[in-house]
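To fix ideas, we close by showing one paired sequence and structure record:
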Amino acid sequence: MHEYIAFLKRYPWATYLLLAVNIVVFGAMELSGYSSQNIFDLLDWGANFYPYTFKDEWWRLITSMFLHIGFIHLLVNMFALYSLGSDIESAFGHRAFIITYLVSGLSAGLVSGYYNLYVVSAGASGAIFGIYGFHIIQVIAHEWHDKNVVIKSFIGFAIYIAVMTIIGTQANFDNAAHFGGLGAGLVIGLGDVAFNSQRTHRIYPLILVVSLGLVFFTYINMSRDKVQYFDMFQVFLQSDKMSVDRMNNSYSSDSAMVSDFSELLLEWDTVMQEIDSLPELPPALENDRKTLENYAKWRSEEIGYIVTSLKEESYIYLDSLELVRYKMDTMPPLQYVLNYNRPSPSAPDTTEAQKPPAREIVEVYYDSLWKECPIWEHHYYRRGYQDSLGRWDGLVRDYFKNGKIQMKGKYSKDLKDGVFLYYNENNTYSAAGRYEEEYKVGKWQYFYESGVMSSEVRYRDRAYTINTWDSVGNPMVVQGNGEDIHKYPNGVIASYAKYAEGRIEGEAYGYHENGEPYYKEFYNEGRLVYGRSVSREGERFDYDISTFIPHPVGGADAFQQYIASHKIYPLQARLHNISGDLEVVFTVHTDGSISDVRFMNHLGYGCEEEAERLLKAGPEWIPAYLHGMEPVTSEGSVVISFP
């Protein structure tokens, strides 16, 4: 019996038990469908992670000692545990071995949390390093008379530390945990040498109590600054996801969108408060903190511009929106992206092969009348995207010859469709509003060249003037009612019109700069009934609303006869039995020429090409006339039927 007890004392059963536990945990993890190399699975199984461990999950200091990141990690650690642990346990007893292993593993977790920034740590390495530290102290203390043994052990230990550190640096091993475990093993070894010269093992309960007390004290008193930063980052991620989701959402009304986005503003206020309340952080986090602070500020500005734009139904905030989005897009990348939320399962992305090829930006040049021209004659130029048929399709920017922006807008198959911003050459706004397939809709805002707003007009079935201002910002028409009066710099009235419920009503008139009469017009519910104007040379003109509408020379009947006699029914359209009406819109210039032919609907098979040929080869057009005497560029339209 005594021999059996002596055998048990020498037999390294604790080493084999630890080997078994580590191997069983690894096998259980893999067999249950988890991956030992998946960071989210490791966290679920209890890996050491500062924001979790030092918030309230202290038990991770223990569980992380029995997890391993991949089979090679397990194999290396178990080999070291078997070869070193069995010797230490047999030589110094089970208590010394277990206490050294446990305390070293806990210390490794503490040091890892203190020195690392958001590293997911797992493995028995820290505990094994502690065993190594205990071993080297014992060798130095008890074999000091045999210098060869001491030197050999020390060199072997130093080589092992160097190799593990080098490998660990390349393979992202947790070297802080290694040295934390090593330090604990060295201290326990020194304590054993200093207070246990008789090898009675009575010192080990005291070492255990003191060590665990130090571990507990250290855990309680370690700074939680990185926990607070991590928690702030989670609030940041949640708010950013909410922002992206709501910006991609479809809303039944602008008011619903305003309500949702106003809530977003409160979310980002919370994020900024969280950032402001952060304690002093490790220097490595300062750049990220500043980046998050800027991003939160810019996100708030972005959402604020959207809310203000919707409330005021004004698109002039889109430039500010574009600028703040550019700032967000060009912000420096975060060094620590602390998104440790397990991604939700989703279907594999199969859209890559279906994506259309990237389109190149097209640049086209225009003369002073916005007719396409060679580069050496241009006054404007356009940069944007075109489809395979050469139609403007997507974002488009127009520029003055000097490179300053003239227009920002979006086209859909050659038709204006979306928000458009127009600019003066001095970088002030000219007009801002929205088109739906070439037609103005909603509220448009117009500006003087100085940048002061001149009027707000709402477009539905007709145009309704909401408000107008003079050149210094004094209101004239307010909520559709009032007198709109403009003067020349010399004080002479340039124009006068009275508005009622958003429409010109009664008599409107204007004068030349020298004070002589220019025009007098009579309106009924916003529609011109008749007018009379006088040129500076004394020539008189009588006109009605028809002068606002461009029309072909010879009249509409003659134009239709021309179409009928010159129209060629395209062969492909004939073969496919294509028929129908094409609604064509185009620009009529002051000289009667036409350009910029667009189609409100499409028949295909050559019908659009034939309609454009007919228009350009046909009679000139009489442009619209302002006050019956001044030709202005305007939009014309016709319907051409096939066959």
